[in-house]
Specification:
Blueprint (H helix, E strand, L loop, with lengths): L2 E5 L3 H12 L3 E5 L11 E4 L2 E4 L13 H8 L9 E2 L5 E5 L2 E5 L3 H11 L4 H14 L22 H6 L1 H11 L3 H6 L4 H8 L8 H12 L5 E2 L2 H15 L3 E3 L4 E7 L2 E7 L2 E4 L2 E4 L3 H7 L8 H11 L4 E2 L1 E8 L9 E12 L2 E12 L10 E8 L3 H9 L3 H19 L7 E7 L1 H8 L7 E2 L20 E3 L10 H19 L6
Parallel strand pairs: 1-2, 1-13, 2-9, 6-16, 13-21
Antiparallel strand pairs: 3-4, 5-8, 6-7, 10-11, 11-12, 14-20, 15-18, 15-19, 16-17, 17-18
Bound molecules: flavin-adenine dinucleotide (FAD).
Length: about 500
Amino acid sequence: MSNVLIIGAGIAGLSAGIYARKSRFDVMMCEAHSIAGGNCTSWRRKGYLFEGGLHWLTGSGMEQPLHKVWREVGALRDESRITNGDPFMVCDWHGQRVSLYRDNVKLETHLCEVSPEDMPRIRELCRDIRRFSSFAMPVTDIPRLKVSEKSPSIIPSGLKMLPALARILPLSALSVTDYAARFRHPAIRLLLMSVVNPNYDAVALLVTLGCFASGDGGYLEGGSLTLTANMVKRFEELGGIIRYNTKVTKVQIVNGRACGVVAGGETIRADAVIITSDTLTAIDTFFDVPLREKWMRTMCMNMNRNGVLLMCSFVSIGVETDLSDLPESMTFPLEKPIEHAGQRITHLAYKLYADSAGYAPKGCSAITLIITGNTYDYWKQARDQGCYDEHKKELFEQICTALEKQLPAIKGKVAVWDVATPLTYERYCGTWHGSWMTITPPGTKRVFYPCRLKHIGNLYFAGQRIMPPGGTPPAVSTGRTAVQYLCRDFGAVFQS
Ligand SMILES: Cc1cc2nc3c(=O)[nH]c(=O)nc-3n(C[C@H](O)[C@H](O)[C@H](O)COP(=O)(O)OP(=O)(O)OC[C@H]3O[C@@H](n4cnc5c(N)ncnc54)[C@H](O)[C@@H]3O)c2cc1C
């Protein structure tokens, strides 16, 4: 039996590990951290649980082709509970509440009532959402692969997607900000800008809204910890091994083939290596001789462009008050913008987790906020100058002051707070500058990178960076594709 070494036990690594074990390879996974999951994680502080890496799951809907993949890797099971909170998000515009409903008819009626003068644009938005609700991430097999069960043809789902495909060109020329700016009502503008990062092209926004409208994009009870734990369980049940606290520093290449890795000074031999840690970091650090692949040069060039790396400062706050009567997801404008790391923050969006779901002690609530923006250099400088913790406190205080105005009940009730910066993500997940997804700005082509190399044998890549914009669906899907290449190269039958 050939043995495969997988670098990283995030969603891509676990996916690759599970499919490789099913396809009868011996599998060992090296994970730098003491836990699995990578970016798909949550953390506990003083009885609060802060959901850090999963807000909605594409493929949670049973109709989606990706659902089958989540089931195959054991992430979703018969007993999994998915909630599709509706409204998905609410905007509080100086006391007026405007909701982003998943239900398309309800959304259209509601928004037209809120802003009759925006009616033509609202109708167009809802028409686009309906078109994009047939949009699905295809699940395919690579050519010339022996498979235990062929993936269904993508032609029927491709045909259903035709109406959405016709909208891709005009929408991809607009940023989310441009798209939102066409609406006169400020609350509708703010709602649309709070779903995905406003620098994405408008396709990303419509794909997301279409996903919600189709009954997909739900929240798995237990969130990222459950998703990860279910996959670890499946991998270990299949006989896979994870070595934690084992950071790979080099991939060994001999005679044009990958034959193992170096981790903690130890050489671990393998017949094949699958790299699922961030591809950008891997390209930079794992190889003694730089790899000559064209797609890697393209990736590095694309990712070097300003603003495409999605990163954040993640603020989590535990409050000793029950906020369960408020919407779970809220966006609101700030009376006074927050100046932070050269950025001007004009609005905030928070997620609320009440005690009933096990996220906070009884009668208390957990609040999380994602402040996106490329602040890597700012935090790095703060760390180098010894004022990292001070800057974290400063950001927390600014956010907390703004939140107290919005949620007076939390005043004096903060029991715990925490700020994770891009440096935190870099340290714990090894991602390039702490970035956990890739922004697809307007006017740029979506490039999907191959999972294998032309010039080096037995070496494969998977992970969010391979399929921008990333997230857990590309992670699980590229893990599967990498193993399909592995199977084809080793003459094995791919088992799903
Ligand atoms: C705040 C936030 C919110 C998010 N919300 C969502 C959401 O709602 N829906 C969604 O789908 N996605 C969401 N994401 C994105 C999603 O979590 C990630 O894109 C996805 O988990 C990436 O998985 P991955 O396996 O490709 O990479 P990673 O998660 O980066 O996993 C890589 C693994 O490799 C390990 N590693 C790195 N270097 C080494 C080394 N040298 N040796 C050994 N191991 C190494 C890391 O420790 C890590 O475990 C969110 C992410 C964040 C941070």
